Amino acid sequence: MKIIAYGIRDDEKPYLDKWSEENPDVEVASTGELLDDSTVDQAKGADGVVTYQQKPYTASVLDKLGSFGIKYLSLRNVGVDNIDADAAKRNGIQVTNVPAYSPEAIAEFTVTQLMRLLRRTNTFDRKQANGDLRWAPDIADELNQMTVGVFATGRIGRAAMRIYKGFGAKVIAYDIYHNPELEKEGVYVDTPEELYAQSDVLSLHAPATKENEHMINDKTIAQMKDGVFILNPARGALVDTDALIRGLDSGKIGGAALDTYENEVGIFNTDFGSFDKIPDERLKNLMKRENVLVSPHIAFYTKRAARNMVYFAMDANKSLINTGKSDKLVEL
Ligand code: COI
């Protein structure tokens, strides 16, 4: 049996080597390159493909995998929004993901960024770099005095809720699916509008779907509290960036922490050499603001997550090849 792993970073390689040692019945090939039209031929002869990437899995790549007889594609990440589902289905390609490599990694980062926003650390860092060590006017807010609205209570949303509660915040949530434990605690509001109206902080943890594209827009921002803080470690597509910028300009939005961005493909996880060379004016507009924290999709990026992404995806792919089954199969 042969599995090829694409996009293997230096920090993932030791985990892949260890998995390979522990699974001598599997021939493991790997490349640092991402899976696309220019690299897909390297999969010829493999029984399964393991990969992760933020850029799309296109129809032409999936058609090629199909033509090589490859039926098993295992993603090392959670989100499956960048797969051409029709192409995967028509090629009979089964897809697995890793739904829980470390929900805590993303939750901890989200709250870290919120605390940075509330304590104005970006502003103080910038002032200090210029020798300005004064306090005023950058007085902070306290999380224990705030209501945090969590949009979507999957594993990551729930991990974030536990931390918010630890800080003493009031936590409310909206989701179409109600988690039974949270239901008992009475945290759910009935509509997104109620969540917007009551939250000082809005913490987004939903996967990207057709239905929720640009759910944060001019209309929904108008329904939020004045000075709301918006956190998006989930998917860039949830937020209409132009509306966000308008909300920040007017002061309606008090701050934002964006670990995802709607045009991040080809931009995040790239070294442009200088700020000026980043080829996206809207992103630079956001990055220049003291009350906006942009991070290049790094909330997931921890040692535990990297290990689990490799191990769980390789296990899932091997299981698919051996049995045609996996507990991580995704319905596309
Ligand atoms: C995911 O797991 O879906 C993420 O967003 C992180 C990733 C792009 C590695």
From TrEMBL:
Protein's UniProt keywords contain Membrane: no
EC numbers for this chain: 1.1.1.28
Positions of the D-isomer specific 2-hydroxyacid dehydrogenase catalytic domain: 8-330
Origin: domain of life: Bacteria
Protein name (Swiss-Prot/TrEMBL): D-lactate dehydrogenase
Organism: Lentilactobacillus buchneri subsp. silagei CD034
UniProt xrefs under PROSITE patterns: D_2_HYDROXYACID_DH_1 (PS00065), D_2_HYDROXYACID_DH_2 (PS00670), D_2_HYDROXYACID_DH_3 (PS00671)
UniProt xrefs under InterPro entries: D-isomer_2_OHA_DH_cat_dom, D-isomer_DH_CS, D-isomer_DH_CS1, D-isomer_DH_NAD-bd, D-LDH-like, NAD(P)-bd_dom_sf
Record-annotated D-isomer specific 2-hydroxyacid dehydrogenase NAD-binding domain positions: 112-299
Cross-referenced Gene3D superfamilies: NAD(P)-binding Rossmann-like Domain (3.40.50.720)
Enzyme's top EC category: oxidoreductase
